[in-house]
Amino acid sequence: MASVLIVDDDPDIAMLVSHKLKAVGHDVAVEVDGEAGLAAIRRSHPDLVVLDWMMPRMNGLDVCAHVRAEPDIARTRILMLTAKAQEADLERAYTSGADGYMQKPFSPRDLAARVDQMLAG
């Protein structure tokens, strides 16, 4: 299957997402903050990143912007997974470079389906 990087500072969310995506056959790695996540994207070139918005050291919007600005990783698919739920938040996420957006709380089954959809398209 695909390589997926989860970048989320909440260990429970990261573990839940990791477990679900591994169960459906993806190769999964986890990072706990934006700077570590960006470094992992540069290093491993994952097929998709599941990215939290509010994290220490670098937030998800900044990670998106950096990814889109770097030619070697600019085509990386990014799914923003966040508690931010306002229409303006959705617009900011897409403007920063996110390809998809899911709100917390979420259904693990819906998340896995969304990941598969993004990887197929």
From TrEMBL:
Gene3D superfamilies in UniProt: 3.40.50.2300
Q: Which InterPro entries match?
A: Bact_response_regulator (IPR050595), CheY-like_superfamily (IPR011006), Sig_transdc_resp-reg_receiver (IPR001789)
Where does the sequence pass through the membrane? none
Q: Name one Pfam family in it.
A: Response_reg
Has keyword NAD? no
Q: At what positions is 4-aspartylphosphate found?
A: D52
Q: Does the keyword Phosphoprotein apply?
A: yes
What UniProt keywords apply to this chain's record, in alphabetical order? Phosphoprotein
- Response regulatory domain boundaries: 3-119
Q: Which SUPFAM superfamilies match?
A: CheY-like (SSF52172)
Instruction: Give the PANTHER family listed for this entry.
Output: RESPONSE REGULATORY DOMAIN-CONTAINING PROTEIN, STRESS RESPONSE REGULATOR PROTEIN 1
- This chain's protein is named Response regulator
